[in-house]
Amino acid sequence: QITLKESGPTLVKPTQTLTLTCTFSGFSLSTSGVGVGWIRQPPGKALEWLALIYWNDDKRYSPSLKSRLTITKDTSKNQVVLTMTNMDPVDTATYYCAHRLGVMPFDYWGQGTLVTVSS
Amino acid sequence: DIQMTQSPSSVSASVGDRVTITCRASQGISSWLAWYQQKPGKAPKLLIYAASSLQSGVPSRFSGSGSGTDFTLTISSLQPEDFATYYCQQANSFTFGPGTKVDIK
Fold it and tell me: What does the pLDDT read at residue B104?
């Protein structure tokens, strides 16, 4: 049974760096073809893909946010970490992590964590 | 960058209605398209992958079609649990469409 869960601060100040952790079970990020991605959703708005890391440490980033994002994995801890620098109120959103296998879309999602950016 | 659009942005329908949602890519994406359903306060749920393949456990009233730039999601007979927002996603660039809200007429 695959599960993912996001954790991190619920409130960050403008200009700060956000660090979110996705802790998962039921699969390994050392298995060929496996990936974990991050997606966010501002309140009342659409989904936006942010970043993805694969089993072989290949990383992909949203072109519009690439300069602010870093994604890393800790295979031994079954965790993926996303950092986003220079946070702004427009970054207020629910942040999700999700599982991907091969060329499949994101088939398992975490419950999401709401991050508010405010001074 | 590939852009995804959806139409309509919202649709009001009744239980039992046939509902069709359209997704268009700004350039050809072959069959690299997925559809998700999202209910308020919940994570998205994968419905369709590779444009027309039904994800395991998804009711057969959901179907997808299309290739290249134009795609459709069809709900053949709308059920009460289907009132939600539906998103398409380009499966290679991971770009999502803006969503289509299906609500009760």
Answer: 87
